[in-house]
């Protein structure tokens, strides 16, 4: 086979891989950098940065890529080109009992995984409203933890930055590690003004095939580190909900899970979300 024919075959092979491999497989192999600065309303779909957005509300209903607002929750791009999640008072809250969970979330940046040569680094800017009473944050989780209809299809495992409102027993911003809905660790982060803009960074470094070293930094200062199971291909979840974990001396656990509904709206802002591979030093 001459060089010209070999080159043609190589091009055809690359073309075939690009066309027929899932987008996540292509991303996992090359780990190209991606960034979202919310200069416009995002596109959603399998070949986009963002897979979908969803809202839990109106009882036990889930709206995926639907009309906004839905129930008491919404997503919007602000005049300053930031992504805003918001929840207002739910007028039907009492009638919806016991299905009072209100949550807005987005899934995206799918297919990234660390290798022996490259760490994966996610970074984002986040600013909370002082009236936030539920939980919010930025998690890394296994790819396709959520199905396209917004339902959970895998054990709910995640690592990242979470914030709980002042009424919660775990109030404040934390490094959170959760395995199958159970909190493995939740390390409070001190001396961070979460009501001002901060730049957060999450880094996954491959230790071996089964393990990654995960670190979180805020404004270039490392605040926590843990060793955890390797997710393989990953995705990003950002959210705002009305979950509250409240102290209760009558409970065997010492706390109870409630759903909040305040007259003062709660809001979280995100901006400059990006992911990139970084060579292992």
SSE layout and pairing:
Elements: H1 3-20, H2 23-30, E1 34-36, E2 50-57, E3 61-64, E4 73-77, E5 83-87, E6 103-112, E7 118-128, E8 135-142, E9 158-164, E10 172-179, E11 182-188, E12 198-208, E13 211-218, E14 221-229, E15 234-241, E16 243-247, E17 255-259, E18 266-279
Antiparallel strand pairs: 1-18, 2-3, 2-6, 4-5, 5-18, 6-15, 7-12, 7-18, 8-9, 8-15, 9-10, 10-11, 12-13, 13-14, 16-17
Outline: globular
Measured by DSSP, the beta-strand proportion falls in over 45%
Largest sheet: 8 strands, antiparallel
Global Rg = 20 Å
Low-confidence stretches: 1-28
Query: What is the helix content?
Result: under 10%
Strand/helix succession: HHEEEEEEEEEEEEEEEEEE
Task: Give a quick rundown of the structure.
This protein has 2 helices and 18 strands.
Please characterize this protein's 3D structure.
This protein is mainly β and 281 residues long. The protein is built from 2 helices and 18 strands. The strands form 3 sheets. Strands 1, 4, 5, 7, 12, 13, 14 and 18 form an 8-stranded antiparallel beta sheet that branches. The protein has an 8-stranded antiparallel beta sheet with strand order 3-2-6-15-8-9-10-11. The longest helix has 18 residues. The chain is globular and about 55 Å long. The two termini are 40 Å apart.
Task: Spell out the key features of this protein.
single chain, 281 residues, mainly beta, eight-stranded antiparallel sheet, globular, disordered N terminus
């Amino acid at each position: 086979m001459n060089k010209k024919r070999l080159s043609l075959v190589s091009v055809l092979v690359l073309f075939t891989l690009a066309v027929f491999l899932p987008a996540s497989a292509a991303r996992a192999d090359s780990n190209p950098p991606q960034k979202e600065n919310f200069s416009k309303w995002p596109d959603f779909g399998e070949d986009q940065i963002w897979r979908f957005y969803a809202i839990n509300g109106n009882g036990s209903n889930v709206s995926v890529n639907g009309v906004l607002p839905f129930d008491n929750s919404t997503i919007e791009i602000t005049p300053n080109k930031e992504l805003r999640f918001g929840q207002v008072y739910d007028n039907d809250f009492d009638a919806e009992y016991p299905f009072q969970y209100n949550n807005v979330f987005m899934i995206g940046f799918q297919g990234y995984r660390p290798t022996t040569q490259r760490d994966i680094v996610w970074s984002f800017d986040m600013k909370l409203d002082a009236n936030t009473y539920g939980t919010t944050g930025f998690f890394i989780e296994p790819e396709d933890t959520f199905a396209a209809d917004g339902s959970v299809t895998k054990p709910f495992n995640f690592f990242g930055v979470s914030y709980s409102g002042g009424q919660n027993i775990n109030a404040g911003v934390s490094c959170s590690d959760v395995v199958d809905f159970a909190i493995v660790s939740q390390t409070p982060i001190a001396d961070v003004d979460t009501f001002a803009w901060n730049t957060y960074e999450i880094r996954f470094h491959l230790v071996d095939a089964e393990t990654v070293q995960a670190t979180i930094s805020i404004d270039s200062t490392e605040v926590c580190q843990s060793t955890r199971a390797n997710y393989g291909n990953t995705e990003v979840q950002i959210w705002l909900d009305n979950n509250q974990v409240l102290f209760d001396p009558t409970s065997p656990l010492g706390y109870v899970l409630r759903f909040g509904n305040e007259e003062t709206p709660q809001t979280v802002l995100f901006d400059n979300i990006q992911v990139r591979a970084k060579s292992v030093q």
